[in-house]
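note to self: the first set is below, dont mix up w the second
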Amino acid sequence: MPAAESVRCRWEGVFPAMVTQFRQDQSLDLAGTARHLERLIQSGIQGIVVCGSLGESQTLSADERRQLVDTAVATAAGRIPIIAGIAALSTSQACDQIRAAEEGGAAGLMVMPAMVYRADPREAVQFYRQVAKAVRTSWMLYNNPIAYPVDATPELLKQLVDLDNLLAVKESSGNTRRIVEIRQRCGDRFKMFVGVDDLILESSILGIDGWIAGAGAAFPDENQRLWELLRAREWDAARSLYEWFAPLMKLDTHVKFVQYIKLAIQETGLGTEWVREPRLPLAGAEREEILAIIRRTIATRPRK
């Protein structure tokens, strides 16, 4: 049985966005990536996203993406589904990435719009329809108009409800009203995931199915605990944990979110901070400012 069929993705729960571990010379560190993934699995996550924005996908070659999917599938060994991020310049390139990820054993895909080009709604719908034809498993549409120049509005999503393999939406517009508006137009057709860390509390109140977590990669146990409190509607306990977590979560909404979160992962002993150029490790006053936030978070870490 192919690996892609051995783990069914339920599209519910915490799916951290995985960082890609590099060595200092910017070469791929597959062993380090596997160690971090194992630690995340031990925290109780329900899935993982590899080769996403936090994973520096657009700096990776096609072969490196295949290696990362292979490594994640082998490390997970059937315990959780592996979701592969898809981000390409053209529709055909996106379909190529989809086929390669599924052949490698990915249980699902998280698809961004075609990069760089600002598609209008007609073009965006056509892109997603063509993508759907290439997907053999199931997929999540990733909407982040703040970072990428296409907005999958509730009206646009309504045009995609007939795509049987489109099962989820990662909503990262920064507007929590969208959660309600999408359900008003599309009913319960899509599983709703929040993709902005510091909107997790508000989004949970409005009703979501999952969380593509970023900063929680450095604090996986607390991240999973917060999700469980939110699902149990233990709002006071959840708010208390969220207030502790909030300064770190804000690091996920900055243009240097990759460097910030990787530095946090290094400070908690779960990996290294090395990034691939044009990104550079933090330096000077900015590094000291972010380190202060991370170390304050560690120093005030709630007791288990």
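second set (the one i keep forgetting abt)
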Amino acid sequence: MAYDFHRDLQSIQAPVIHFDHVSKNYQKGIPALDDISFSIEKGEFVFIVGNSGSGKSTLLRLMLREIAPTKGKVYVAGRELSRLHRYQVSKYRRSIGVVFQDFRLLKDRNAYDNVAFAQRVTEVKPSEIKQRVPRMLSLVGLTEKYKAFPAEMSGGEQQRVALARALVNNPVILLADEPTGNLDPKTSWEIMHLLEEVNRRGTTVVVVTHNHEVVDSMQKRVIMLRKGRIISDEKKGGYVYAKY
């Protein structure tokens, strides 16, 4: 029977994400991640923090199954990602939401069509698309911008469209890679408050960031990396400043 990742994510009671002694080497003898183990429960809001080169991006790429671990295992919804066949990988990625620092919107399509595109690739009925897309644009405060193209929107508005696109398929997991990296402080807070609202609705949110102020203020779980290792995992806290 074919895997139904969305169903598995909806129903799983165990951790939705689990890293089991994971290491990743890009060059022989130089680990980007070194024996990482942690679990993220359904409904958690987790920050992944650390300096440049600490392994944050590698961690996210492993969650997205863009790369495979050199050692250890990565599980999402109880499935070991390295064991997925190529056709299953694309289906898996469609079952989770992803927001990137550079938005990655389709430049030749307006806000409505950028969000609707995420539905069309999963073969959602046109009648359902007409209901879901306006609802998502309303959630992120862009009801009146549905005809605007990316070049006609501010960075914050583009990130809101990207967030609506990530949420339109009702994902159980939302991964955000430096979602405030290209935004001014006021807009950054607006995006983070939206992510917090999404989390309150039941979505597991994982944010990779280096924004100290946001992390310190929001007091969520913080996993801090240093040179490919976890040096701190606080269930509720801020950005950890420590010498290791």
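remember for set 2: Helices lie at 5-11, 56-63, 86-94, 111-120, 126-139, 155-167, 185-200, 212-218.
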